[in-house]
Amino acid sequence: MPAAKTPRPCSIADTLALVGEKYSLLVLREVCLGNGRFDQLVRNIGAPRDILTTRLRRLVDAGILTKRAYSERPQRFEYRPTQAGLELEPVLMTLMEWGDRHLRTEDERPMVMEHVCGNELVPVVTCRACGDEVRHEDLTAHPQVPGWTVKGPTAA
Amino acid sequence: MPAAKTPRPCSIADTLALVGEKYSLLVLREVCLGNGRFDQLVRNIGAPRDILTTRLRRLVDAGILTKRAYSERPQRFEYRPTQAGLELEPVLMTLMEWGDRHLRTEDERPMVMEHVCGNELVPVVTCRACGDEVRHEDLTAHPQVPGWTVKGPTAA
DNA sequence: GGGGAGGGTTTGATTTTCCAACTCACGGAG
DNA sequence: CTCCGTGAGTTGGAAAATCAAACCCTCCCC
Question: Which residues of chain A have pLDDT under 50?
Answer without folding.
Answer: 1-3
